[in-house]
Design brief:
Layout lengths: L10 H11 L12 H11 L4 H14 L3 H6 L2 H8 L6 H17 L7 H4 L7 H12 L8 H10 L9 H13 L6 H15 L17 H4 L17 E11 L2 E6 L10 E2 L2 E2 L7 E2 L3 E4 L4 E10 L9 E4 L11 H15 L3
Parallel strand pairs: 1-7
Antiparallel strand pairs: 1-2, 1-4, 2-3, 2-8, 5-7, 6-7
Helix pairs in contact: 1-11, 2-3, 2-8, 8-11, 9-11
């Protein structure tokens, strides 16, 4: 474990930098409405700001209040989330909206313990929401902030371990400003995203570089210390792209899995249907790589049910479909096979 030796994070310098150089015109920063700040924080988990902006704007247009989101169907929510990835966030988002309406009459609680009771809201997300809405200094630790603190204090624990998390949370709690929590939290996130980047950090532009331990020793890129990466396993599957007339057959995923509740092609580990091969699809998840071999099957005998049905080109815009599946649908099925 690394000791800070009494070094304190220069909060005032960071706040000043954030106001002058940080991001202050993002769509969700135009209001302190808890609903919009919560929505942005969930979308920003493991996703870059540039990718989030169009999804956020589409979401608030379609679901302007937490009541609108709570009353929407699962397919509506998934259709507006599809492509943003990490789909458990969307499922928790929907569940959280319902809980806020049912338990708190549609008003987001701003007490830490109450926020932590809601689906999909952890300690860091709760802190970010409270700071953004109330301007109170509250500790939070997203990926960018962890990187900033790990370098500034030169933490020798391995990233992601219990020891690393404990040290970082202790530092986050003990290095807060007296006021202006909104600018401080945003400043930490901006610093990690804009200056203290994973590779090639811009130390010469950093407002806290004079006290940064890893920076002063010329080794910022070595922190946070990462465990050795294991090669991701590769999973191979066959997708059966069944068409009839001007429609394609899709099934709603049930059970477990990252695409749970999304619509996709029937699939199998073995080739059980004869048909015409389509371009292979490669997709990488957090823990494995997927190689899918799509097979076009014409006029297959399939029974419609709650978990499967025929969809037209217009229909697929109204349901949640994983991005690689939708790409194949648009480029091959409706772009070439059905010639929409």
């Amino acid at each position: 474990m690394s000791c800070s030796d009494g070094i304190k994070f220069p909060c005032i310098a960071l706040i000043s930098w954030q106001k002058q150089e940080g991001r202050n015109s993002l769509p969700w920063q135009k209001t302190h409405d808890p609903y919009r700040r919560w929505l942005a924080e969930i979308m920003l988990q493991q996703t870059q700001v540039t990718a989030v902006i169009p999804y956020f704007q589409k979401f608030v247009e379609r679901f302007p209040t937490v009541e609108h989101l709570a009353s929407a169907s699962e397919d509506e929510v998934m259709a507006n989330w599809a492509g943003l990835g990490y789909y458990s966030r969307a499922r928790n988002l929907h569940a959280c909206a319902k809980a806020v309406v049912e338990k708190f009459s549609g008003r987001f609680p701003l007490e830490l313990n109450k926020l932590l009771e809601l689906p999909g809201i952890g300690r860091s997300t709760a802190g970010a929401i409270i700071s953004a809405v109330t301007d109170k200094p509250v500790p939070m630790l997203d990926g960018n902030v962890k990187r900033v603190f790990a370098r500034f204090f030169k933490i020798n624990e391995v990233y992601g371990t219990a020891g690393f998390e404990k040290v970082l949370w202790d530092l986050a709690e003990n290095n807060l400003p007296q006021e202006e929590g909104r600018a401080f939290s945003q400043g930490l996130m901006d610093l990690g995203s804009m200056i203290c980047t994973r590779s090639n950090p811009k130390c010469l532009l950093c407002p806290v570089s004079e006290l940064c331990r890893a920076g002063k020793e010329g080794c910022p890129a070595e922190y946070p210390i990462k465990a050795k990466k294991k090669a991701k396993p590769v999973r191979h599957t066959f997708w059966y792209v069944c068409t009839r007339g001007e429609a394609v057959w899709l099934e709603k995923r049930t059970g477990k899995g990252v695409w749970k509740h999304l619509w996709s092609f029937p699939e199998g580990d073995d080739l059980t249907h004869k048909g015409t091969p389509l371009p292979t699809v490669f997709h990488e998840f957090t823990h494995y790589k997927l190689t899918a071999s799509p097979i076009h099957v014409l006029d297959a005998e399939l029974n419609e049910s709650d978990h499967g049905g025929w969809f037209s080109r217009e229909d697929i815009e109204q349901i949640g479909i994983p991005s690689p599946v939708k790409k194949l649908l648009l480029e091959e099925v409706f772009g070439k096979i059905l010639l929409a």
